[in-house]
């Protein structure tokens, strides 16, 4: 099993969720986060004063999938989240040792 974490632009969330749904992925956790990479921040004007916004709003998706589904998930996220502009985000894939569904006690593949 693998955990896929994707940091994407907020307005791309619905497109990504739809793309994952089309390949049979329905469960995920979504968090509103802030951060920056190469994109850095940007300057905004508020009541006549300029200030720097260092952390930009992003959305973080987390999903745990069987090894067989990893490449399809990555492809779906990449295709649907991509704008071609700086700040499109990143996808991280890590190994998951064990999953337990609290309600039933099911473990691993049965729990996801």
What can you tell me about this protein's structure?
The protein is of the alpha+beta class and 112 residues long. It has a single domain, classed as Alpha-Beta Plaits. 20% of the residues lie in helices and 37% in strands. The protein has two helices and six strands; from the N terminus they run βαββββαβ. It has a four-stranded antiparallel beta sheet with strand order 2-5-1-6, with helices on one face. A two-stranded antiparallel sheet has the order 3-4. Strand 3 and strand 4 form a beta hairpin. Helix 1 (13-22) runs antiparallel to helix 2 (70-81). The longest helix has 12 residues, at 70-81. The radius of gyration is 17 Å and the shape is elongated. The chain starts with a strand and ends in a 17-residue tail after the last strand.
The top level CATH class name: Alpha Beta
User: What is the makeup of the main sheet?
Assistant: 4 strands, antiparallel
Strand content: 35-45%
* Poorly predicted tracts of residues: none
Q: Which class do the helix and strand fractions yield?
A: alpha+beta
Average pLDDT confidence is: 90
Percent helix range: 10-25%
CATH topology name, in short, is: Alpha-Beta Plaits
Radius of gyration: 17 Å
Assembly type of the chains comes to: single chain
Treating each run of at least 4 consecutive H or I residues as one helix, how many helices? 2
Organism: Tolumonas osonensis
Subunit structure: Homotrimer.
Keywords: Nucleotide-binding, Phosphoprotein, Transcription, Transcription regulation
Modified residues (O-UMP-tyrosine): 51
